Amino acid sequence: MKIDGRHYRTIWVAEDGWSVEIIDQTKLPFSFETARLTTLDDAARAIKTMQVRGAPLIGATAAYGVCLALRADASDAALEAACEALLATRPTAVNLRWALDEMLAAVRNQPRENRVASAYARAAALCDEDVETCRRIGENGFPLIREAAERKPGETVNILTHCNAGWLACVDWGTALAPIYMAHNAGLPVHVWVDETRPRNQGAALTAFELGAHGVPHTIIADNAGGHLMQAGKVDMCITGTDRTTANGDVANKIGTYLKALAAWDNGVPFYVALPGSTIDWTLQGGADIPIEQRGADEVTHMNGRTADGEVITVDIAAPGSPAANPAFDVTPARLVSGLITERGVCAATREGLEDLFRNETDMTSRRSD
Question: Where do the catalytic residues lie (predicted)?
Fold first, then answer.
């Protein structure tokens, strides 16, 4: 996607041919800055501190983290240690484990002198594959928006999303936002209700930033406004992403997604979830088994903002001394999901729906038997 007319991915190999550059998402939306990763620790820190975030991008960053680790030490022990360190950074997004498995398969049986080159080649391929996967998600989700537009000719299709599942969460295009970009590019009148998405405000800060950069009409709303807008008939559909989807179609996404799905169900608003096949965890049979990341209380009690003179500061927003809990994700049960938008097509949020699309996925059986 483009920022100020220049095309960017969220992660790329620098001009030196080995270090890795990322868009530092902790600086958005007030400042567009890149950061350089040169070590395993840099990559792990970028994931843990959410300089990079979103399940697909976490996986891509971990893949390059393996590359950086192997540059320092290409031994079996170092490879295993690097994967363990990266896997420990964030527990919910299954793409992290998937990407590390892909990297292990690419380099484990290689001679040490070939491992670095093999690792970089596989990491680059993973990124290219993610871009193509997200493009296909966009193509498969676009007809849903087109059909909504046909039901209300001459009117705008209003779509509500939660958190950030656009190109900033992936390598390019995004998952939930890819169909919206496709519809906008095709000239359909679309408008996005952007949940602010507390804590961390990924909607107000990131989704609004990238929609604005692409020229997509949008409006930031408080998290608790979604149900009201649905009752008023101002939401035609919801599309969100997911960090992990279980074999039965349950989805884990940013905290607050479940509440939007409940409101959508009550108001007859279609609720779609967009995901790459790599986000499906065939080893888990239901959402109750998904590990939910618990993040620091400061994300709830503090907020970043920009003062009138342009200074970006962090301020307290809670009663001093009050404790705060911060579960980062919740689980939306499959019964509340109208459909899953994948690179293979759109399916019902059921075991049968997923298996029908991914029946030829070679790792499905192996993962299920792990």
Answer: 243 (proton donor)
Kindly compute the dihedral angle of the four CA atoms of residues 16, 19, 23, 25, in this order, to the nearest 10 degrees: -160
- Tell me, yes or no, whether 98 and 198 share the same domain: no
How many Å is the maximal CA-CA distance in the chain?
Answer: 63
Is 25 assigned to a binding site? no
Bridge-based pairing of strands 218-221 and 190-195 is parallel
Domain assignment of residue 189, given as a range: 137-369
Q: Residue 63 annotated as binding?
A: no
As for how many domains the chain has, the answer is 2
Contact 147, 156 (CB under 8 A): no
Selection from 66, 9, 59, 8 nearest residue 37 by Cα: 66
- In the chain the first and final C-alpha atoms are separated, in Å, by 38
Residue 90 labelled as part of a binding site = yes
Coil/strand/helix, residue 213: helix
Domain check: are 274 and 203 in the same one? yes
- What is the residue whose two structure tokens read 């001394």? 321
Contact 144, 346 (CB under 8 A): yes
306 assigned to a ligand binding site: no
- pLDDT tens digit sequence for 244-258: 999 999 999 999 999
Q: Which amino acid is at 211?
A: L
Summarize pLDDT for 14-45 with one digit per residue, the tens: 999 999 999 999 999 999 999 999 999 999 99
Closest CA to 260 of 286, 290, 239, 287: 239
What is d(CA 130, CA 112) in angstroms, rounded to the nearest whole number? 27
- Measured CA to CA, the distance from residue 23 to residue 161 in angstroms comes to 22
Catalytic residues: 243
**Long-range contacts, 10-19 (Cβ 8 Å, 24+):** 10/52, 10/57, 10/60, 10/167, 10/168, 10/170, 10/171, 10/172, 11/52, 11/57, 11/60, 11/61, 11/64, 11/127, 11/171, 12/127, 13/64, 13/120, 13/124, 18/67, 18/68, 18/71, 18/120, 19/68
Q: Do 115 and 177 belong to one domain? A: no
User: In degrees to the nearest 10, what's the CA dihedral of 357, 91, 204, 213?
Assistant: -60
